[in-house]
Amino acid sequence: ACAKEKTVGQVFPNSSQAVDCSGNALNTKRFLVSYEDGRFEVVNSENKDIFVEKYLIPRLQQVRRVEYDSRIYLHKENFDEKSTVSTAANAPDNWGQTQVSAPAVWNSGVLGDGIKVAVVDAAVDYSQPQIHPQLSVNQAEANGRAGIDDDAHGFVDDVYGWDFAGNKPQPDITAGNDHGTHVSGIILANHGTGPVLGMAPNAKLIPVNFMDQSGGGSLGAAIEGIKYAVSRGANVINASWGGNACSDTLKEVIASLASQNIMFIAASGNDYVDYDQSGPAYYSYPAVFNLPNQITVAATDSNDYISDFS
Q1: Helix crossing, 219-231 with 248-256: angle to 10°?
Q2: What is the pTM of this model?
Q3: Among residues of the chain, what percentage have pLDDT more than 90?
Q4: Coil, strand or helix: which one is 152?
C-alpha cells in the first residue's frame, strides 16, 4: 500500500494559533522546521501564508513538524553576583560546594575528567582566567586554515564554540551580560587560577551562545545550539533559561539526547512557582519537561532551604 500523503494541517497543526501557553504572541515570521531524517532548521519568511506556500508545501512529505519560533529568556534575576567568576573581587566562601559535599567527592578523585559540558546560554568570556584553561578545543579548526570549515560541519573557525546570536565563532562579551561566564564558572571554574571552585574542575567547556546582551534569545537558536553541542561531543548540556513556549520540538530534541547518553540540565526558574501545583499558564519550559535524561535544578540558600525566589 502507498503511504498516505501528508497535509499542511498534520505537520503544522497550530498554524492558526500564534500564541504560547500563556497567550503571548509568537514570532509569525520565523518557523521551526523538523524533518523526518532528523534535520532541523529555522526558516524566516514574510508571513505564515508565504512560508506555507513557498517553503512548506514543496517539502511537505519530508517535513515532520512545524512550529512558530518564540522568545525565551535567562533565569538570572536572583543569581549571586559575588559568585560569578567574571566580577568577583574577593574570594567567595564557596558555601554551596560545601553544602553538597563537593570537597569529599573531589578528594575521592571525581573531578569531571573526560566530560564535556556545553553551556547553551549567553556569551562566555573565553579570556577569563578560570574559564580559559577549561575550554574544549576543536582541534580540526585550531590546526586548520582560517576562514575554512576544516571539519566540514557547517561552522567556520569554531575553535572553542559558536555564537548563534551573531553567527560567528567569538561572541561579543563587551556589553555587560556575564550570565554565560557566571554559569560556566559554577560548573567548572579552574581551582588553580582564581577564587571560585568549579563543581567539576577537570571537565571541559563547550560555550554556545544564543542570546543577545539583554538576556533574550529565540527558541530556534537555542535548539540550534543544542544540536551544535551534540556535534561537538557534549556529555552534559546546561540550559539556565526558560519561557512559556510549550514546544513539542524542544521536548523532542531534549528527549533524543538520551539515546546518546547526554544529560540535559534545566533551571527551575526564579518565579517562586510550584509547578506540581500550578497550571500550565505558569509553567516554564524546558523546566517542566518530565524526561528521563533531564534534571531540573532549583536553588537553595546557605541554610539548605529552598530560596524564596526559586
Answers
A1: 10
A2: 0.91
A3: 66
A4: coil
